[in-house]
# Entry
Amino acid sequence: MPKRRRRWPYRYIAPLVLVGLLVSGCGQQYVLLHPVGPVGKSELHLLILASLAMGIVIALVLILLAITVIRFRDKPGNRAPYTPNWHGNKTLETIWWIVPVVLLTVIAIPMVNQTFALAKVPKAKDPVVIDVTSLTWKWLFQYPGHHVATVNYLEIPTGEPVLFELTADSPMNTFWIPQLGGMEYTMPNRVLPLWLEADKPGVYWGHSGNYSGIEFEKMFFDVKAVSPAAFNRWLNQTHQTAPPMTMQDYHALLKFNTVGYQTYGNYPTDTFPSVMSGYTLTGSGMYLIEHNQHGLKYVPMSNK
Amino acid sequence: MSVPVAKEEMEQHLPLEFADEKESIKITGFWMFLVTDVMIFGSLFSSYAVYRTSVAQGPSAYQLFSFGPVILETVLLLTSSFTIGLSIYSMRRQNKQATIAWLIVTLLLGAGFVISEVHDFVGYVAAGATWHQSAFLSAFFILVGTHGAHVTFGILWATTLLIQLIRRGFTPVTTRKLFTFSLYWHFLDIVWIFIFTFVYLNGKIV
Amino acid sequence: MPSFVLYLIHTLFPHDVRRPTELGADFLIIMSGVIIVYYLTKQKKWRYLWDEWLTTVDHKKIGIMYLIAAIAMLFRGGVDALMLRTNLALPTTPVISASEYNEVFTTHGTIMIFFMAMPLIFALWNVAVPLMIGARDVAFPRLNAMSFWLFAFGALLLNISFVIGGSPNAGWTAYPPYTGVAFNPGPGENYFFLSLLIAGMGTTMTGINFLVTTLRMRAPGMTLMKMPMFVWTTLTTAALILFAFPPLTVALAMSLFDRLFGSSFFTLTHGGMPMMYVNLFWLFGHPEVYIVVLPAFGVFSEVVATYSRKALFGYSAMVLSVLAIMFLSYGTWVHHFFTMGAGPAVNAFFGLSTMLIAIPTGVKIFNWIFTMWGGRIQLTTAMLYQIAFIPTFVIGGATGILLATVPADYQLHNTYFLVAHFHNVLIGGVLFGLLSGTYYWWPKMFGHKLDERQGKWAFWLYFIGFWVTFGPQYLLGLEGMTRRMYTYPLGFGWHELNVISTVGAFIMGAGFVVMVYNVLYSLKYGERDLTGDPWDGRTLEWALPSPAPEYNFARIPVVTARDAWWDMKQKGQTLANSLSSHDISTLEMPKNTPVPFLLGLSFFVVGFGMTFEWWIIVAIGAIGVVASLLYSAFDYDEHKHINADVIRRTESALGRLQG
Amino acid sequence: MAEKLQFQSEATARAHEGEDEGLPSLLPRFGEEKFPWIQVWGYIGSLVLTFAALILVIDHVLPPVALLSVILTLAVGQAALQIGVFMHVRESRGLAWQMVFLGLVLLMAAGMVGMSIWIMLFKSGVS
Ligand code: HEA
Ligand code: HEA
Ligand code: CUA
Ligand SMILES: [Cu+2]
# Structure
């Protein structure tokens, strides 16, 4: 028989440490807890709601387990009842089929509502549209209304929804600005929509959430949220002053490397797939990659 | 050889392939294998369904397929499914000659199917419709090709069975093997029916 | 000729694998190989190795081989983990480069899931299931050996990638198009696809084998509702394997064809759709996580009843819940890609279906707790893992529910919150469960107990180390840190938590060291188990001596109750004293065969050849495969007989024969 | 003679215990006719179904979606025919399990195809 007499407090230290860290976790670096836009906020609300429900479950189980283990340990003189053949109880079992259902319903209803709500751009006939292309370890942003393009940073107006159209000319990445809201994949041969909105001006960081190669961790980008007026000023100014992007520039971006910020006052139209059916591209890929012995060569489809 | 079998089962004069418990367990095992194969083809069918329209610059299903060879292949395979059924029927009646004869017919029909299909494929490739051309063609070739590979494997398998049958006659082992082969063969027939319907016929619906 | 040699060196050891770590590993591997060969030759053990192990079809020995492989892979995966953690603690001076880091997290995940968790499960199945159901072997002993060797050679193929040619580097999920040649030239990903294809074949066969074993090989009287819970989870897991592995096979094959034969399934061009891979992969991948956790649930159901000295609470509900989990787990796979824009209807549907799984899982949790309630809980090592499992798994499951809350997942996907979630369930659920089972069944495998004191030390190190490692990772997730980064900029406040996490990983490593020491120590000094029933067990395997004789049961028992052995002990009708010499007859047992080993080896050759696209080697391997199959098709000499006298002698030496 | 590698099936188990649960529908059935009528009818049936589908498609009598549904139904019918006639599903031991499995498998396979299409349609998007 094993030796008895173990010291119990250890079992509680780990959760305590966790709680302590959570309490101290109010700093600004907890970006998910400090959203600055409606999308991020609604996602945080759900997260909090679900966490509360889960907190109840966890607390319940922990308490029950602690009582059980302490009470029914096999130590001499334990006077707790010993019922070796007790193997079922209808009432109890019904309770734990039902309680989780109730708790889950509490989460599920707002979850479904929010899922559908987030799929609609609110109050907007003409949201600002930004075409996003993930390239190998860099981001290309294009403003189709104004023919302005930027690399690795973008500027958005505050107080109104922005519609991002996401695609990739690279392995898959995800487009993510934690403080504005959740992410979405960028995929080749596909254009996916995502809308976000910033409540107040500021510079937020974005990153890719999906690994795509050795310098993937450098795929940070900056999001500058400015007032709508400033935003329009910036668009016009850039359109007029910045140099236009040429096909050569685009090909340079396709190389497997990282680059700094870039700004263009115009860009060739076929660097972003046209939206054909809904947001889904059908048919062929955008660009053909030819793999030959000398390495990789990219040929835009328009050249074929 | 003493085999403990439940009374009521003994009375039903089990066919040889089920009479031996161990061999009969192998039949159950083979069904389980078929389950995995159903899932393999299920995955391939779902890819095909998704890729059906991703024709890129390659030909579409409508342009690619013609009915002639496909109908021939279908009839060959349906008939071979029938003849292997007859082979099992003869086996149950302890008729070795007939069993072997029907098995040979089955093999020949299967070989005809494979030849026709390979001929078909060669034609596609010669016309430039390789599976590199488009996701649709990739999905088509892998689905139909996997089926064809199964048939080819079945032919080789049955050839080894033929030898064992001739050498050993009907034993619990040989009958069980032939029986599982027949299950396999009918299964491939069913898969083909879905390929015929979902790939070829559907490809001609515009 | 020299140019050929140069070519060989350049292909097998491209410049990016000629790094100190790799060269060190090369050296270590070659050295240990030399030592093993030297030892075997010196002790004249080659014959023994071949006769007793490499050609065996005995489920107990196959189980032990799985166990050894799994522990070795836990070491390899663990060392990988320590490398990952070390790098993440030192963001300013990374110890390993980006390309090494990428290879290491890929092999870490792949090895832990496919080559540590899976074989550990199969080890326990092989060791325990036939004994628990009162059978002499599994349904298909030769197939069982084939499964093992396919697994083993698959694992070998993945492991040599580290030293020859370069490892895969696209994560255990291997999403295209990054796995395509355009972005990922070199043999690394070929290794990945081929080794998983080969091992996957073995796994599928194991699934078939154990499904038929549990359905058809049970002792008389053991109806389905009298099966031990572990056998129930075996049955459902085996069924899950049958359904889950085929989509993986298809996804892997398609990726491989894209790489080697120019098809266009997932490419950037020609209308390829990478997301179809993602769809197929998770069609497998989600059931897979339940494939690894259900057997752990089964272990816990045995362990908790044994050490609480009380019948399992709510047996029928437990059966119902494993069946429910099995079905539901097929309908939830989209939760791994809520962020791929399949639309709100799809996402809501799969979010709900995912949440549903919490219900049967919760039923199990409460039933375990209530098994303890009213019992007498003995805090053995195995039981400590059980008790630690409950809170750990519940917290992991709860964070799973947070991830299943679709809009929350938009934020949490691929962050360290996710990493923490899945280690919480994988370590707290799977690893704890399987280790618990290993401690529990160790006497049955080797005839001696593992040292309890050391076992408990290892346990506490694991348990505390676990929370120190993965607790902070939830917070890192909330700070927006994404996974698979080999280093990170400093300004985000991620550094401190990463340091804590790394410390935890080393605490876990210490636990592993203690565990291995425990194994070696107990080999020599461990308490011998002479009764065959060291824990006062409840199920049939404890009716046998430890380790069980080759034929398991001299006479097949007749089962009349759920906890068969417990019931027999209550009624005083133990096999040990009721076996008379008339009950014993000559037994027919499966005979050893070299075919499974050779088949595995042939597949290995095919896989290796394909990895480097050396078609001559592929052809040689393929000939080996065909030859092995042909040989076994015509092989009718499958059985040997164990003479009744031999059995009588064995049994009376064990003191199990009347008179 | 040698006792075989453990052979108790569920049926045997019941016999041993003497508690025959008696599910006649689940007991195995065997038996063959004097002439293989079933096979012959099965063969004819399968040919008829095949050509029916073919003719429907060649003549394009229905709108595409309806046509596809009809020919898929015919295919399912034909699969059932093959399973019923040729694959001897009703006659092996452990039959209940085979039927359960068969149903399950077909359900899973159909579900997999259907759901995958649904997912990959991207019927969605922000509007
Ligand atoms: C053993 C492995 C295992 C297990 C058991 C689980 C169990 C669960 N997992 Fe986990 N999961 C993984 C391994 C596992 N997971 C892995 C490896 C990944 C990532 C793969 C990768 O990307 O690399 C992953 C990823 C993953 C995701 C994807 C996240 C993303 O990529 O964005 C999601 C989302 O829904 C999820 C959810 C769940 C849920 C809801 C459960 C549920 O089954 C949990 C159920 C259990 C409980 C809930 C606790 C007990 C219940 C009660 C006490 C009753 C009361 C409870 C309630 C009322 C809720 N998991
Ligand atoms: C059952 C599965 C399993 C298990 C047990 C573990 C165990 C551990 N895992 Fe792992 N992990 C995964 C499955 C698992 N993991 C998966 C699937 C992924 C995803 C991969 C991907 O992204 O593709 C992952 C990813 C993953 C990451 C994320 C990497 C990234 O995204 O960048 C990290 C980081 O902390 C991590 C850490 C650990 C640690 C510290 C342990 C510890 O438990 C390890 C314990 C340590 C030991 C057992 C060490 C033993 C060895 C020694 C003590 C020897 C010492 C000697 C020398 C150093 C020579 N794991
Ligand atoms: Cu909480 Cu800031
Ligand atoms: Cu999952």
